[in-house]
What we know:
- The structure holds two protein chains of two kinds.
- Chain A is an all-alpha fold.
- In chain A, 76% of the residues lie in helices and 1% in strands.
- Chain A is built from 19 helices and two strands.
- Chain A has a two-stranded antiparallel ribbon.
- Chain A is globular and about 65 Å long.
- The model of chain A is unreliable at 441-445 (pLDDT under 50).
- Chain B is built from 18 helices and two strands.
- Chain B has helices spanning 2-19, 24-48, 78-101, 106-125, 129-138, 140-150, 155-184, 198-211, 221-227, 230-255, 257-284, 288-307, 312-343, 359-372, 379-391, 396-421, 438-456, 459-462, and strands at residues 57-65, 70-76.
- In chain B, helix 13 crosses helix 15 (379-391).
- The longest helix of chain B is centred in the last third of the chain and has 32 residues, at 312-343.
- Chain B is mainly alpha-helical.
- Classes of the chains: A mainly alpha, B mainly alpha.
- Chain A binds chain B through residues 324, 365, 379, 384-386, 390-391, 393-395, 397-398, 401-402, 406, 409-410, 413-414, 416-417, 420-421, 424, 427-428, 431-432, 471-472, 475, 479, and chain B through 63-68, 70, 105, 130, 133-135, 137-138, 140-141, 144-145, 148-149, 155-156, 159, 163-164, 167-168, 171-172, 174-175, 177-179, 181-182.
Amino acid sequence: MIETPSVDWLALSPTVALLVASGLALLAAVVVPEWTRKAVASGVALAGFVTAAVLAGVVFDESPTPEVLLSGSMARDQLAALAQVILAVTGAVVVLVSWAERRRDNHGEYYALLTAAGAGMVFFVSAEDLMTLFLGLEWFSLCLYVLVALDTERAASLEAGLKYLVVGGFGSAVLLFGSAFVYGATGEIGFAEIASASSTDDTFLLAGLAMILAGLAFKVSAAPFHMWTPDVYQGAPSSVTAFMSAATKTAALVVLLRVLVTTFPNEADIWTIAVAVIACVSLVWGNLAALAQRDLKRLLAYSSISHAGFMLMAIAANSERGGEALLYYLVPYSAMSVGAFAVVAARERELGRAVTLESLAGLGWERPFYGIAMWTFMLGMAGFPLTGGMFGKLFVFSAAYDSGDWWLVLVGVAATAISLAYYLNVVRWLYMRAGTELRLAPAGGSPPNDPALATAVGAAVVVTVGSFFAVQPILDAAADAAASLPF
Amino acid sequence: MLTTALILLPVAGALVVAVLPLPRETTAGLALLVALMEVGLWIVAAARFDFDDGGLQLGTSREWVESLGISYSVGFYGFSLWLTGAAVIASAAAIGYAVWVGRDRPRAYHALMLLLTGAIVATFASQDLLLFYVSFEAMLIPLYVLVGVWGGARRQAATLTFVVYTMAGSLLMLASVVAFGVTQGTFSLVDSGTSDNVWVFLGFAIAFAIKAPLFPFHGWLPLAYREAPVEVAAVLSAIVSKTAIYGFLRIGLPKFPEPADDLSGVILVLAAAGLVYGSLLAFRAPDLRGVIAYSSMAQMGLITLGVFAFDDLGLDGAVLQSVAHGLVSASMFLLVGMVEHRCGTGELASLGGMARGRPLLATVVMVAGMIALAVPGSATFAGEFLIMAGVYGQGWGYSVVVALGIVLAAMYTLRIISAILHVKPGPAVRDEALDLRTGELALILPMILALLVLSAWPALISQSSFAGEELSGWTAYPPPPEETR
């Protein structure tokens, strides 16, 4: 009889909940009559994400000290649990955004893939060795490749899917190659074991570190590994873009933090510089390129690259305060990002075509709710007060300043100044251009009422503004999570 | 609690006005009511305030972010209570004016105006560096839309330059806030010590210099003041600019005594240059708003001279002058609005002769103008005299510049008075143009009356701003070095 390791089902429960939801949604695509298919599949997906969020919350509560499970391949700690909460809540909101997406069929498949991707990410953030790291990455990436290309009748969607597949596959290959180097250098695959087995000045180990960093930077969409981001974000269905911009980034950044801090503490003086440089490049390139965009989804894509830069600043600090800053930042960032893409989706459905800055004209006056929401998200991304975005920037800057990276703070400040130009430009189009020539109701009559989307946008606004006033509870959770890493 | 109520009342009013689907007039009336209640609340606060006590009063403090030492901490000193008083009165008058002219989209407009009022009061009340930054920035959000949506023909260019300038300053300030707070371990202005880092001080100083604006950071001023709706320009010049003075008084001097002292020479020279340059530009400006805008810049230079005089007289004078200029500038901008409303233009060449048959307009413009040009016996004269006497300690040349500024102020103020009231009737002045209406008088007269009271009794402010002789409990300016200055 083969000896099996004991399984901690509670730690695995968020993943399992999402997998079950995925299976049920897929089943719904076949078994349930067509007219209830969408309702059943989305209901199952919503329930799956909500259950996963609750279970992850329980795990967060029950895991004050970090443990490793399943022969050292998975971590059960508050870092993973907090990231899982953020991921699952994001997923639940995205289900609401997806509800009224115009799609002839494939509802069951869509929600099955969405929950499966969520399950992959939830699994990914608790990776504790190179094997689970790669498995988790491929698990959610494969689901996303299909999701991006799901609108088969749109060429842009197919093109985006192909681009994402090629570039993402390359990124995964780099990561795998790097893992092989690290294994070759140390003979270990567990993160903590590698740290204790590694000797300094091992060229193979350093090459492995560089390649793992690059592979994860692809998923974070940090410059210069961002080339796929604008095209994919623009081409993918808006709800999928919303999911990717918030969830993929959360998962990849949390894992990057964990890998760098747990696996390569001895090489910290090297990777902190590398991450700081990547952060710097992302800030500069993301913001400058965003200035030139007319298409709103592309603009938000570049903005997400610059936000990756801010969050990498926190990782580069290599301190508990940095980890705290990253995890705090992820909360308002995810909300603003999902919210902004949801508003884009609403406008897209109303106009029946891609949303450019011009087609936002007058939105603020015609749809006061979406207008104020978009205004809030833009101000939040620019780091204005009354949104959690400000505290996110503040914490990141203070973490960087604390670690002596004052030059990085200045780059961040300059990047924020540049970013104002395009964020406020969106506000300008919302309110200061009359939308007379665009006031067309495309598919006949007034735009469809979409309570699910409105709920999603409302929830995003609440989180964005709420994370400003209720900083302390979120920061406490972030501090607990950061404390589970060996800084 | 009272201070929190002062901050939250306009914010809550803004939410109510924005959300309730009331008819136009009711919305506007509700906004005005909230603004008047705010003035009433301030009077209650002033009545409860003990002006002989130099410490922080009416304070509330609550932890916000414990690990970084950030708290919601508000309260007033004598000088900040006076600045707040000018702010609530001027913003009530501005909202009243907007009600009077009936701005479009009243729900959004009045909600933003009330939000702006709340942010300004919060700035004057904040005793935590981060709260100060938050409120300082929060002012920009409503201002951006107020100018951008309801402004004149070139409003988009105006908002762009305004936002670029102020945000550049604010972000420098954010970097300084982070550096100061992290180094000190607390963001509280009450608990933190002093810093001798020149760069951190510069971050604050530049942000304040842009907001004021001080020469040479005034690039945004002419467009913003010309293109903003006139009552928004009034709020900008009367009170938003004074938040910079509060910043210098509460953060610049007490937290950075050494850098402030080291750089005082540069700042004094720039302020003096701004005073003269602004006055000259005001004298050359072809339109009413240009004159008031540049005169506002000149006055901010003057007040800064008082702040960096580093002695009691200068500081008292700076606060008195801030309050007086706040009221004068708000009155003048609203009067400009009323004249523009009647004539459709503010070009000085097209105006004139309005005194004939319009006694009320003539009297009010005359009185406001006399106070603006600091006629001896007026509150502004008292303020300028204190500043002149105070800055003498830094060098007699500065006092000469202040005296020159008073002369130039007389020149440009008399120029617009005569351009509006006297000479021949200009092409834009029609005979049907009415005298001031009762509603308009009701907006201006309270401010004029407050100015007359201050003219009769300037010591009301100058003696209570820093609680008498010793500035007990809180050093408002760096102590002079051992060897006599």
